[in-house]
Amino acid sequence: MAEEMKADGAGAASAEETSVPAVQETGVKPLPPEDAGAPQDDDGSMSLIAHLTELRSRLIKCLLAVAVGSAVGYYFIGDIMHYLTLPVGKLYYMQPAEAFFTYIKIAVVVGFLLALPVIFYHVWRFFLPALTPSERMVLAIVVPVSVVLFFLGLAFSFFLVFPAAIMFFKGFGNDELEALFSVNRYFEFVIMFVLPFGFVFELPLVITILGKLGFITSKFLKKYARIVIFLSFVIAAVISPTPDVFTQSMIAVPMIALYGVGYLIVRFILQK
To answer: pTM of this prediction?
Structure first.
């Protein structure tokens, strides 16, 4: 009986000795029962509370980015106003607090534009776990290109189209009628005039994506080109801040040109 107990004790000791080197050789430690991070469901996916927590965290980071950008914009408000007023020269304010609140609006808009890459990054990171590798690759290309096209549209409008529009409107002045631009009204006009160009410049990207997915072809784009030209002027009339033909043409003509760029991409690059 004593010999059997000794044999059992020796077997248990040998089993412990063999188990320790096995763990050391593999280098794998047993995982804790639950991840120390976000709570998960039984299938290993993130729970609703975890998604909401991550969404709140990323929203806070986006708001902080806008706040920091707004602070930077307000710090350089003198330089920003200098460039904004180049087409018209001197501005006026009709109420005591009009200039102050207009500065705040300009700083917030500048902060949003500066934080736009950060916002797109956090949106992309939030949806990243639900995307396939191919979808991640596509978004990694589409998101930066869309941001660049948006800023190109803003720059094109403000530095090329907007000064011509201001000169056109100032041409209606005479000895009896002098143009006096309010700082608040002028800034609102700038936003309403410049912002649509940022979205219009996304047109080649939209056409390229639709062509890549097979929804449209170069023949389709060529067939409906006349309708697009007509709709371009209709859209320009809707989004234009003024009802004059000049401003509507300044919006419609680039839209038609960008449609042509999308057509060339689909036909010669995608070959569809």
So the answer is: 0.70
